[in-house]
């Protein structure tokens, strides 16, 4: 297996960045001139998100919508994926409008990737097996979701949703989701369960579930195991992944993750499709609203006599959250 020296350097760079980040204690890595240009744009978009959410909530709900807490947000991300023979840009958008004062609390969701997996870490391996990119007109959707306000530590948080997936023809869907968390204080283990069942008019049934088992090792490091499975009636197959990872918080703005990921599908020559070694460096580069990810990976595919290969992902992610402070 030949691994490009530049990619090996990236792995070393991630380790070095982790050490350097421990000494950094400022709010932003951006130069002053760039902050001065970015912050007015961010403020205007955030104000738009907040006003849009509260106006829609007021239409369906009450006047209290102008003052209560609102969890609406706009998330914009741009991935640059580099791998042998297949380098590409992959943008994604998710816009959630929270409507807390409606009689039954609703959320309006506009997303560019209705297929997005529940487990972000294993998303690349799953997407390779399943095929397709995130930003695709035929992969976008708009919908309404109603979710209970229960504490997931005490009871199941269940949600019902309906919407339309764009494309030709339009594909209406109904969705049920459920979240739950269990904490074991003596052992410090925590289990998170997240599942959803979607019935599309055209694509048929889609079922996804994610189990997250984690335990803090000390104040900085956490051991984590994730199991993700997805069944699609249209493909008549189940895709799954198993992840073992060490998460390390370097400081209030920086985190580093090392992971082994196994990706598979219940069809084809072999059930296991890929083994992935991954490092995941995440940095808050500006005031908890702009993030940078550097994700080098080594893939060991099992089918088609493919040689091991290296992939590298750079991601910029911006959040525009509403909930401006207001008084009556």
Looking at this protein, list some descriptive labels.
328 residues, Porin, 14 strands, signal
Provide an overview of this structure.
This protein is an alpha+beta fold. It has one domain: monomeric porin ompg (Porin, Beta Barrel), CATH 2.40.160. Helices cover 16% and strands 49% of the residues. It contains 3 helices and 14 strands. The chain has helices spanning 5-21, 32-60, 123-130, and strands at residues 73-82, 88-99, 106-111, 141-147, 157-165, 171-184, 189-200, 204-216, 221-232, 237-251, 254-265, 272-286, 290-301, 309-321. It has a 14-stranded antiparallel β-barrel with strand order 1-2-3-4-5-6-7-8-9-10-11-12-13-14. β7 and β8 form a beta hairpin. The longest helix has 29 residues, at 32-60. The protein is globular, with a radius of gyration of 21 Å. The model is unreliable at 18-24 (pLDDT under 50). Keywords: Signal. Residues 1-23 form the signal peptide.
């Amino acid at each position: 297996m030949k691994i490009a020296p530049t990619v090996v350097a990236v792995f070393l760079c991630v380790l070095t960045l982790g050490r350097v980040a421990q000494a950094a204690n400022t709010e932003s890595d951006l130069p002053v001139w760039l902050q001065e240009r970015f912050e007015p744009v961010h403020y205007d978009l955030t104000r738009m998100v907040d006003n849009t959410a509260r106006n829609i909530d007021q239409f369906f709900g009450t006047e209290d919508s102008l003052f209560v807490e609102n969890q609406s947000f706009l998330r914009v991300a741009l991935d640059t994926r580099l791998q042998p023979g297949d380098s590409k840009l992959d943008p994604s958008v998710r816009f959630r409008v929270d409507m807390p004062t409606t009689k039954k609390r609703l959320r309006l969701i506009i997303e560019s990737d209705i297929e997005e997996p529940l487990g972000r870490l294993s998303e690349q391996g799953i997407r390779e097996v399943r095929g397709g990119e995130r930003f695709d007109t035929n992969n976008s959707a708009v919908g309404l979701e109603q979710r209970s306000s229960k504490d997931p530590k005490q009871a199941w948080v269940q949600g019902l949703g309906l919407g339309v997936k764009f494309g030709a023809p339009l594909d209406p869907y109904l969705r049920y989701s459920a979240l739950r968390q269990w904490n074991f204080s003596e052992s410090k283990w925590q289990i998170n369960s997240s599942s959803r069942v979607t019935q599309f008019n055209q694509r048929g049934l889609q079922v996804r579930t994610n189990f997250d088992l984690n335990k803090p090792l000390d104040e900085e490091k956490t051991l984590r195991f994730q199991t993700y499975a997805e069944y699609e009636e249209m493909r008549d197959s189940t895709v799954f992944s198993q992840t073992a990872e060490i998460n390390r918080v370097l400081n209030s703005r920086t985190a580093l993750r090392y992971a082994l990921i196994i990706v598979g599908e219940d069809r084809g020559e072999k059930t296991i499709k890929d083994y992935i070694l991954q490092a995941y460096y995440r940095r808050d580069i500006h005031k908890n609203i702009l993030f940078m990810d550097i994700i080098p990976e080594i893939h060991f595919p099992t089918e088609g006599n493919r040689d091991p290969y290296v992939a590298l992902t750079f991601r910029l992610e911006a959040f525009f959250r509403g909930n401006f402070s207001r008084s009556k």
